[in-house]
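User: Hey, quick favor. My workstation is busy. Could you predict this chain's structure for me?
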Amino acid sequence: MRLIDESAIKNIAIGASFFGAGGGGNPYYGMLQAVAAVRQYGPVKLLDVSEIDPAAWYSPVAGMGAPAVGLEKFARGDEYQRVFDAVAQYTGHHFAGTFPIEAGGGNSLVPLTLAATMNLPLVDADSMGRAFPELQMSTLALAGVTTTPMAITDVQGNTSIINTVTGKWAERLARAETVEMGGTATVSLYACTGAQLRDHGVTGIVTACELVGSRIRDAHRDPEAALTEILDITHGYELFTGKIIDVERRTEKGFNVGEIKIDGYDDYEGHKLSVMIQNENLIAIRDGQPITMTPDLIEILDAETLEPVTTEVIKYGKRVRVLGTPADAKWRTPAGIACVGPRYFHFDYDYVPLEQLIKEAK
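Assistant: No problem, here it is.
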């Protein structure tokens, strides 16, 4: 057990945005809320999965919707406890703590704010190891943990419980409610036991976010050394260096969807990279050939500061470095690929691991 203070929150916010692969919500607002909560209520206890009661119950909270909408319409903060308490009341479980549903800029900080407000521990695990756009895309779901019952609420206080036969149905119904709620909502789902979270979650993710975030915050001292450290920590690869020449981005059915086009410079002069997005960066095409594809992660970073650039704020003219890092092993299974592989998102490619694509491109 250790305590998460303001400095740790700032590192987690940046690192979570890195692992969010372009999605998971903007980290800045989430960071402000978490810092304010810790200042008011004190630091948050972070528990390793080895320290939690395997028979106790835990539940995450998260934001849902199009990240671009969330830039102008963000949560007040009382929504987090509202959905958390709603699931507890519906299920009859007393929740011993909370955890992030994903590693995403905003969504890694929502449960931290809740934990501070309610004096609950935060578990060092999530259910994705990155961010994904749909609710059923969870390592807990792959292991048979039910997506619902889930609670959903908005800033007005409208709240409902969704109980569905599959996770995909939960996604469809909750997405429709989110659209009606103005494009963003707050949800709580995937209530699970400590044993289920320990065995089927992506463990150590909060610590990983904090570690990568600290390297990025210090990158101004020596960007090249920081990049080398980040790639070593994440077992990643540099994919591209270039300038954004076009961003096609639209809000469609509660998602940000579109394409980011990048012209190369330095070692990539004369080359082109396109990144297809649905909230997150899903597939990177370099000179007409895929170089990284979901579930592996594509991170777009500011070329000078190495700070992650999320899909809702990336703009024409920005100079960036693009990295690829391998997804958690749970996603690189037949069930994982069926759930979040390129064909699920209607890309006409069979999944090929990042390492193999890099080798073939050389």
